[in-house]
């Protein structure tokens, strides 16, 4: 295959100087990595057996995992396997396209900037994400009407989103109920068009030999209520638990669920939005698809721990911080100062 037709973004060439530099490449102290482990595995079948004891026990497990891990995996989640398989097949087909084509992908009504690769702001190798992604607001897909381009990718994403959002809504409702909050909140605020799908590909990373700590995606928390993640069998996802990085063992039958920043704030820090990252792989490429369950931008998050903020303000703050500091600061930006009031308005805010 001619070089210009390669599907891979030119990560190695673009970041050559960062990769080959040594002295300026200070690496911040790493948390120790603990061995691969299984996330709490929750069988959602228990919710629908008509057995109220099992139903309650299952809800408790969901809440407990969200408090203690911020992450869990679910089986018997109700999403037909063909929906997941078609999504994955379309995702692979999309990423197989030559890099030059992905950069300007016009077949879909994806907004500008949906396709991302590497880390444009990286000034040292530790800030480099060895990956490419389509980060797609579902409003792009739904706005284009039913299958306007006769495009199987957009109709597949629409079908995937419809099913996965049902799962996210169900889990969010259970988590709300477990802390005595209104479950209807999500139906009112998280609309089909306010959510996002992010299709990730982690190309093989030959540089791992020189830089064993190379990451596929930088440590981050998600800026949503709940994320539903479909990963393949390669592995590489890690999360922080009790001050250590834990490697998640892939389970081919399960979907991964994690709590995002909005739920942490809305639950007054009961549920945890936990930092996670993906390590690069020297031998195998990896795919994942994340569904971000988000409210409309004007939705206000009320919390006793954080100043009240709209989702739009939160997103804007994250974007500004990434621009200024090269990384997200997140919820700590919105903490109520000691002795302060959570209803105080942000400057230029509500
Ligand atoms: O690929 C993964 O396993 C994680 C992806 C992720 O964290 C994200 O897209 O926010
Ligand atoms: Fe994430």
TrEMBL record:
InterPro entries: DIOX_N, IPNS-like_FE2OG_OXY, IPNS-like_sf, Iron_ascorbate_oxido_reductase, Oxoglu/Fe-dep_dioxygenase_dom. It comes from Erythranthe guttata. It comes from the Eukaryota. SUPFAM superfamilies: Clavaminate synthase-like. GO terms for biological process: coumarin biosynthetic process; response to molecule of fungal origin. Keywords: Iron, Metal-binding, Oxidoreductase. Residues 191-295 form the Fe2OG dioxygenase domain. PANTHER family: 2-OXOGLUTARATE (2OG) AND FE(II)-DEPENDENT OXYGENASE SUPERFAMILY PROTEIN-RELATED (PTHR47990). Belongs to the iron/ascorbate-dependent oxidoreductase family. This is Fe2OG dioxygenase domain-containing protein. One of its GO terms (molecular function) is 2-oxoglutarate-dependent dioxygenase activity. The keyword Chloroplast does not apply. Pfam families: 2OG-FeII_Oxy, DIOX_N.
């Amino acid at each position: 295959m001619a070089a210009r037709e390669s599907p891979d973004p030119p990560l190695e060439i673009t970041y050559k100087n960062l990769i080959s530099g040594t002295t300026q490449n200070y690496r911040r102290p790493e948390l120790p990595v603990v061995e691969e482990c299984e996330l709490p595995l929750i069988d959602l079948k228990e919710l629908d057996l008509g057995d109220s004891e099992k139903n309650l026990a299952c809800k408790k497990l969901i809440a407990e995992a969200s408090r203690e891990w911020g992450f869990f995996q679910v089986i018997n989640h109700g999403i037909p396997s063909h929906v997941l398989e078609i999504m994955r097949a379309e995702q692979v087909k999309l990423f197989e396209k030559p890099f030059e084509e992905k950069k300007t992908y016009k077949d879909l009504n994806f907004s500008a900037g949906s396709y991302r690769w590497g880390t444009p702001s990286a000034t040292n190798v530790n800030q480099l994400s060895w990956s490419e992604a389509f980060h797609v607001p579902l409003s792009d897909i739904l706005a284009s009407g039913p299958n306007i381009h006769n495009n199987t990718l957009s109709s597949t994403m629409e079908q995937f989103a419809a099913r996965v959002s049902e799962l996210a809504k169900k889990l969010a409702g259970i988590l709300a109920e477990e802390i005595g909050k209104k479950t209807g909140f999500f139906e009112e605020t998280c609309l089909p068009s306010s959510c996002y799908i992010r299709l990730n590909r982690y190309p093989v990373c030959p540089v791992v030999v020189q830089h064993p700590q190379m990451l596929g995606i930088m440590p981050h928390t998600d800026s949503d209520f709940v994320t539903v993640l479909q990963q393949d069998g390669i592995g590489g996802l890690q999360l922080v638990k009790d001050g250590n990085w834990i490697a998640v063992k892939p389970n081919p039958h399960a979907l991964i669920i994690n709590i995002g920043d909005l739920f942490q704030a809305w639950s007054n820090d009961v549920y945890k939005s936990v930092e996670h990252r993906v390590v690069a792989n020297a031998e195998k490429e990896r795919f994942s698809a994340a569904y971000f369950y988000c409210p409309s931008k004007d939705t206000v998050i009320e919390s006793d721990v954080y100043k009240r903020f709209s989702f739009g303000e939160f997103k804007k703050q994250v974007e500004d911080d990434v621009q200024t500091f090269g990384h997200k600061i997140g919820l700590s930006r919105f903490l109520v100062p000691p002795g302060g009031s959570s209803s105080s308005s942000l400057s230029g805010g509500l």
